[in-house]
Design goal:
Rossmann fold; Aminopeptidase; 2 domains; 10 helices
Length: 389
């Protein structure tokens, strides 16, 4: 009788049980991987997770041999193969697993820092020099937005210039799937996996705090090395009346730096009118409006104005001080809005002045397309792909 003939199984740590059986020399029945469409295929055999470095896939050997900086965060450590390899090279490694059985295996094999944890809530007690998302774990977030959120969380706890090594597959059919592992009388809970094809990597990491450093590909498998980019950590908070003068100033300063300042913006009357208009926004007297302050290191550096309706998010304004322009903050803000559009199923619109060619080039590069124009502006739109990517 095969495992799939066994009827209902007990929800439990099926993967940990398989790893423990292999560690202790007991007979290992082939684990199976069940997909939420009814497909059942053999899971990777536990033996694979105990292999020495010389027997790893070539792309793993090539990528991990470049790791030089710790501490290392190994998310989804399995039986500890990567953690033990890097620990043996003198690096501090924290191995994280959702499977208590896998954690026991790692500890018994000699891993020094092993923790049970939610892989989508990675620890932030260190500034990680290297982060590993191996064996398909680049898709751990479970959705396109979830994968990007995980990358952002990891960027927030990564050291400057940190390295992230991850891999996924060039999938056929659905990118986002539900999976579980069955072993003997046990079956894991379902988890969501959003596989990432090689051609999607650039879009996946844009605005998350990472930049693509290197790629390797072998048939359906592909591996990527990302570097923590130079985008400073920023925060967006609702504006208050105490911010109104700054919000006026940053609009003038940013527009002047672009060489686009109109004469009327230098006049006291314009400033008085703009201040009153901004106060209405901050007081909540403009339906659907959210005017915010962008901060870096708790210092005000920019203005962000968003209009939301049932079917549209509109980027109604973003201005940054010249000292932080060109450092990726604007791109990161826009990518976060694109994620919100995917999550809520709406389009993202904006207007760009016809004399602001630099901004329009940025928006076009980020996937916006022209949908119309007014006498002063080109109207651009970004719509989520139908597959949610």
């Amino acid at each position: 009788m095969t495992q799939t003939d066994a009827g209902e199984a007990t929800i439990g740590d099926a993967w940990g049980a398989a790893l423990l059986d292999f560690l202790e020399g007991r007979e290992v029945v082939q684990p199976v991987l069940e997909v939420d469409d009814g497909t059942v295929v053999p899971a990777m055999h536990p033996e694979w997770f105990f292999r020495d470095f010389d027997r790893w896939d070539w792309w793993d050997r090539e990528m991990l041999s470049t790791v030089e900086t710790g501490p290392v965060l190994d998310l989804g450590a399995g039986a500890g193969r990567a953690a033990l390899y890097l620990q043996g090279r003198g690096l501090a490694v924290a191995a994280i697993e959702s499977s208590p059985g896998a954690v026991e295996v790692c500890r018994r094999r000699g891993a020094l820092d092993v923790r049970v944890g939610d892989l989508n809530e990675p620890p932030s007690d260190e500034r990680w020099g290297t982060i590993l998302l191996l064996c398909g774990n680049l898709g751990l977030g479970g959705s396109w937005v979830g994968n990007r959120q995980l990358l952002r969380r990891l960027a927030a706890s990564a050291a400057p210039g940190a390295l992230l090594i991850g891999d996924s597959v060039n999938f056929e059919g659905r990118a986002e799937i539900g999976l579980r592992i069955r072993y003997r009388e046990l079956v894991t809970p379902w988890w969501r996996q959003r596989n990432v094809a090689a051609h999607e990597i650039g879009d996946l990491v844009a605005g998350t705090g990472w930049a693509v450093d290197r790629r390797l590909e072998d048939g359906v498998d592909h591996s990527v090395a990302l570097r923590r980019d130079a985008t400073p950590e920023y925060a967006v908070r609702p504006a208050t009346l105490d911010d109104v003068e700054f919000l006026v100033d940053v609009v003038v300063t940013a527009t002047r730096a672009q060489g686009r300042l109109r004469l009327e913006m230098e006049r006291a009357e314009w400033r008085t009118d703009y201040r009153r208009w901004t106060e209405l926004q901050v007081r909540g007297e403009w339906p659907g409006n959210m005017t915010s302050v962008i901060e870096v290191d708790r210092r005000r550096v920019g203005r962000l104005r968003i209009l939301r309706s049932d079917d549209t998010i509109e980027l109604a304004g973003i201005q940054l001080l010249p000292s932080v322009q060109g450092r990726g903050i604007g791109t990161a803000v826009i990518e976060a809005l694109k994620d919100e559009a995917v999550r809520t199923g709406v389009v993202l619109d904006l207007g760009v002045e016809k004399d602001n060619a630099d901004a329009e080039r940025l928006y076009r590069r980020l996937g916006f397309a022209k949908m119309g124009e007014t006498p002063d502006e080109h109207r651009l739109r970004w719509a989520p792909p139908k597959d949610g990517a």
